[in-house]
Design goal:
With 194 residues, this protein is an alpha+beta fold. It folds into two domains: 33 residues; 118 residues, Roll (Mannose-Binding Protein A, Chain A), CATH 3.10.100. Helices cover 39% and strands 19% of the residues. The protein contains four helices and eight strands. The protein is rod-shaped. 20% of the residues are buried.
């Protein structure tokens, strides 16, 4: 009888089977699935944003290098006599101020006496610039170093005016024949040659 009494005194409680397969509720499954999807989506978005940042960084670096080479730094052209250094001003000045600007830097306005040089300069200059050619009082065009004007690269119909005594290169026109005469008082940028 003792055994029966002990059995009767034990309270019945729900005992979970920890060894068998556990059954999760439907809502728990959905929560875990959403967590996994959210996690995968976050990883995917992070990777995409990282790739966009890398592409933008490469683009910015490329643009900076291009701008530096084409506009603000010196450009080198190897000629028979060695290396020549070109630089373009960032400010607009009249022809005389432009010449002084170049001289202050140990250079002078550019002299363009070959088609190869004309094409080269026109390829990297993207805006109008003064060159080292002007009309003397006697009506003759001369370079800043007094060398003769053997070859010209005038735009069609130029030179055009009696009162336009200084010469610009305008790359917005023909890539080779793009010289134009202007009044020397006009303010545009310049290109120097050392």
């Amino acid at each position: 009888m003792e055994i029966e009494t002990i059995y009767q005194n034990v309270k019945h409680t729900d005992v979970k089977d920890t060894h068998g397969p556990q059954i999760q509720s439907h809502s728990q499954d959905e929560g875990q699935a959403q967590k996994k999807r959210g996690s995968k989506c976050l990883v995917l978005m992070t990777v995409i944003l990282g790739l966009i940042c890398v592409v933008l960084l490469v683009f910015i670096i490329f643009q900076h290098i291009t701008i530096t080479v084409l506009t603000e730094s010196n450009v080198k052209l190897k000629e028979d006599s060695g290396k020549v250094l070109f630089s373009k001003s960032n400010e607009e000045m009249n022809w005389n101020e432009s010449r002084q600007y170049c001289r202050d830097r140990g250079a002078d306005l550019i002299i363009i006496n070959t088609e190869e040089k004309q094409k080269f300069i026109s390829s990297f200059i993207k805006e109008r610039v003064w060159i080292g050619l002007s009309e003397e009082n006697n009506g003759n065009l001369t370079w800043v170093d007094n060398s003769p004007l053997d070859q010209t690269f005038w735009y069609n119909g130029e030179p055009s005016s009696f009162h336009e005594n200084c010469i610009e290169l305008d790359p917005g026109r023909d890539p080779v024949n793009n010289w134009n005469d202007l009044p020397c008082s006009w303010n545009i940028k310049c290109i120097c040659e050392k």
